[in-house]
Amino acid sequence: MDLGLTGRRAAVAAASSGLGLATARALAAEGVQVAICGRDRERLEKAAAAIGENAHPIVADVGTPEGATAFVHEAQRLLGGVDILVTNAGGPPPGGFDDIDLDAYRAALDLNLMSVVAMCKAAVPPMRERRWGRVLAITSISVRQPISGLILSNTARAGATGFLKTLALEVARDGVTVNSLLPGSHATDRLRRLHGGDLSKAAEAVPMGRVGDPDDFGAYAAFLCSEQARFITGTAVPVDGGAYLALL
Question: Which SUPFAM superfamilies match (predicted)?
Answer without folding.
Answer: NAD(P)-binding Rossmann-fold domains
